[in-house]
Automatic annotation (TrEMBL):
GO biological process: potassium ion transport; proton transmembrane transport
Transmembrane segments: 6-23, 30-50, 56-73, 85-109, 115-134, 146-168, 174-197, 217-235, 270-289, 295-314, 321-347, 353-374
Name of the protein in question: Potassium transporter
Keyword terms, alphabetized: Antiport, Ion transport, Membrane, Potassium, Potassium transport, Transmembrane, Transmembrane helix, Transport
Membrane topology according to the record: Multi-pass membrane protein
GO annotations of cellular component type: plasma membrane
Length: 653
């Protein structure tokens, strides 16, 4: 039985992988692939699982999604966009919800069902719209900014909706104003309590966790905080997702925001995938076939109705015709949070399964149309206005940001903010070179950020952290730490994400120089050898050697991988892993006397002849026809045991 269940789980995952691969090639979002997987795996398909079996795990996906949303909820950003967010966003949400609710009431639905339907239809897809706008480079255009503002308010509006659904479940068909007021008051009190705890407790806790330098502990703490706050609000009679959202919002202003988001993303994406699979299991295609005409009419009404509401609001706000049309088409679909609302409504027995299936199909089909509508929104606006592209394109473009883009292309990314990293940053700042720093020491990051330095907390082994740090725009990446394990992980990742950038790597010595260069390092700087070169340059300069000759000599050593700095005469404490110099004096009667250098098996001995000393004169790298005489001193370079064997061979054969 257990093996059968495991096989069914594996088969479901295989279906999900194949579905995502196919739909992504078609330019459709992964959400549709998860829904298709749910249909195939659920009662309408192979009937491996029921929606009830997936419910508990799937709800965790909603919790982590709300936690991630809270991390992105920035009070300063919200305040800067307050006019469009609270003006346009609230108007769109309220008008769309009221209209949809009234139409549902006229269609003989109960008031509770009508409110749920209106709430689900009023929401648009944040994930799909933001991704498409970013791909098209339209986030800074006027219609992109307006779309983001509306989506931001919708994300905020999800919070009171999550408070309202459990209340509707307990209140039946009659909605009491006093019960709504008490629930909102309770939510405000919980919000205030969590704000107090978040201000004093959470930052201190994550400071201690960060000081441990344990990725596992940081990730576990993130999950526990998200789930524990969700469990707390659930215990108080509210939604788990509400508590997770508040926890994310409290941590969104901290220095750990990027690391928290990177740690939570794999779990969130996996569990959200299961959530959408569970939604797909709700879909009954026998009902879809029976009501296909009604579903298509409802789909057309939803897209057209939402687009008309947004278009009318923007025209009333005196936006241009083209911007109004483009924004309306961008936001015309139903969003992923609509699935959350519908799923919770079914769980609370607020919606009939037939109505839920219809709405889920409408949401799925609208999201399938969303990529085409968003990508062609400007073209449709131009066609409707009857203007040539250049006549309408100018108002849609915000003021030029070419200067900022050029600065980003000259960005220097410094990984590690210890003494070396801080020294580099100071020189960058002096020369007005834009730079950004990532470090894993919470105290150091906190102190630097207080001083206004562009330093961020994050694990440089994580791809998402490096992407947030604009690694793709960096022209130079500097790895200032010398941890071998980190270099093995970080260096290939940096080279993969930034194939054209120059990567400088700091190491203690040059023992792994060739491997680091093969892994993608443009230049390796071994600090022990560079320190020796700096001291040598000062000694030579003080001895009167011309500066140009010193610089040429230093450059020659770097270009030849510091060959002149390899091999030293050992002391009382010998490191048998390093190469050393050893002088072998050949007395009369030694085996090598009378032989030429070419006659000696140097490859077999695995040592290098650095020089021969004869009559007080030293000859570096003599020719192979050099004949060895007695009293010659051969200076060998190699590891101690190999040198010992070579000496025995030279003396005894």
């Amino acid at each position: 039985m257990e093996h059968s269940f495991l096989i069914q789980v594996l088969m479901m995952l295989v279906i999900a992988i194949i579905s995502i691969a196919i739909l992504r090639r078609a330019g459709l979002p992964a959400i549709l692939a998860y829904l298709l997987t749910g249909v195939i795996s659920g009662p309408s398909g192979f009937n491996w699982f029921s929606q009830h079996q997936m419910q508990s795990v799937a709800e965790l996906g909603v919790v982590l999604l709300m936690f991630s949303l809270g991390l992105e909820f920035s009070l300063p950003r919200l305040w800067a966009m307050r006019r469009t967010v609270f003006g346009l966003g609230s108007a769109q949400m309220i008008i769309t919800m009221v209209l949809a609710t009234c139409i549902a009431l006229l269609s003989s639905f109960t008031i509770v069902e009508s409110i749920v339907v209106g709430s689900a239809i009023a929401l648009s897809s944040t994930a799909i719209v933001l991704k498409l706008l970013n791909e098209q480079g339209w986030l800074r255009r006027r219609h992109g900014e307006l779309s983001v503002s509306v989506l931001l308010f919708q994300d905020i509006a999800v919070v009171p909706l999550l408070i309202l659904l459990p209340l509707l479940a307990s209140g039946g068909d009659v909605l009491s104003f006093s019960s709504v007021a008490w629930a909102m008051t309770e939510g405000v009190l919980i919000f205030a309590a969590l704000m107090a705890f978040g201000k004093w407790g959470l930052p201190r806790m994550f400071d201690e966790v960060a000081r441990s330098r344990s990725n596992e502990l940081f990730m576990l703490s993130t999950l526990v905080v998200a789930l524990l706050t969700g469990a707390l609000t659930h215990w108080l009679g509210l939604s788990m997702a509400l508590g997770a959202f508040l926890a994310g919002m409290l941590l969104g202003e901290s220095q750990y925001k990027g690391q928290l988001e990177a740690d939570i993303r794999p779990f969130r994406d996996l569990l959200m995938g299961l959530f959408f699979i569970s939604i797909g299991m709700l879909m009954d295609f026998s009902l879809v076939i029976d009501f296909w005409g009604e579903i298509l009419i409802l789909l057309f009404a939803v897209i057209l109705g939402k687009a008309l509401v947004i278009f009318a609001l923007l025209r009333f706000a005196k936006e241009s015709f083209g911007i109004s049309v483009a924004t309306a088409l961008t936001l015309a679909q139903v969003g992923e949070f609509s699935f959350v609302v519908l799923a919770l409504a079914v769980n609370y027995n607020l919606l009939d399964i037939v109505l839920s299936t219809k709405l889920v199909m409408v949401a799925v089909m609208s999201m399938a149309l969303a990529p085409w509508l968003v990508r062609h929104s400007l073209d449709i606006a131009r066609i409707m206005q009857g203007a040539r592209p250049k006549e309408i394109e100018a108002p849609l473009i915000v003021p030029s940001i070419e200067k900022d883009e050029n600065q980003e292309k000259d960005l220097v990314l410094i990984l590690g903010y210890g003494r070396v990293g801080q020294t580099i940053a100071r020189f960058m700042k002096t020369e007005a070179v834009p730079f950004l720093v990532l470090d894993l020491d919470p105290t150091r990051v906190s102190e630097a950020r207080k001083a206004g330095e562009p330093v961020y907390f994050g694990d440089v082994c994580k791809r998402s952290i490096l992407k947030q740090a604009k690694i793709k725009e960096a022209k130079l990446i500097v790895l200032t730490f010398s941890d071998g394990r980190l270099l093995e992980e970080v260096l290939p990742l940096c080279r993969y994400l930034a194939p054209d950038a120059k990567i400088l790597v700091r190491t203690r010595d040059d023992s792994n120089l060739a491997e680091l260069e093969a892994a993608g390092a443009s230049q390796v700087i071994p600090e022990s050898l560079e320190g020796s070169l700096m001291l040598v340059s000062q000694v030579l300069y003080q001895c009167g050697v011309p500066l140009t000759r010193i610089l040429k000599r230093l450059e020659f050593e770097r270009r030849n991988h510091y060959q002149y700095l390899h091999g030293f005469f050992s002391g009382s404490e010998t490191d048998f892993t390093l190469e050393h110099l050893h002088a072998v004096s050949l007395p009369k009667g030694a085996y090598a006397v009378g032989l030429t250098l070419a006659e000696l098996p140097w490859d077999k001995l695995r040592v290098e002849l650095r020089a021969v000393r004869r009559n007080g004169a030293e000859i570096e790298k003599p020719e192979l026809d050099w004949v060895i005489r007695s009293a010659d001193i051969l200076i060998l370079l190699g590891k101690p045991r190999r040198i010992e064997k070579a000496e025995n061979y030279l003396l005894q054969g």
